Predict the 3D structure of the following.
Amino acid sequence: MQPIQLFDLASRQAEWLTIRQQVVAGNIANANTPKFRAKDVTPFDAVLDKSDIAMARTNPAHFSGNDLSDSGDIDVKDAALDQEIGIQESGNTVGLAEELSKSGDIKRQYDLNTSLVSSFNRMMLMTVRK
């Protein structure tokens, strides 16, 4: 029997969402700090490409899974410059509206992640009971 990778994938995404929420919260906290540069994390797709969670192929015509075995480190980097905000007079690059939007997106992704894991867990429990 093959191991169930959905839980590994969901765990990895939850870890990524936690780090991203910390970075966004730090950006919001430093919205008025002179010369503070907004930060963001690498997209989850890039983290998934580095991880050892490979997608299964049931047919050679399907896309190939990744075969990298790195730990899939989540990198924190300077965020792209917001064209509306730009660099403020104080040298700060945090766009508060953009950061709040990111925070809402993180919550939606986390809710979806936990809902999928919960549904899959219920489905597995139903199959074990029979």
User: Anything to note?
Assistant: The chain has a mean pLDDT of 78. DSSP finds three helices and two strands in the chain. The chain has one domain: 6-129. The beta strands are 39-41, 76-78.
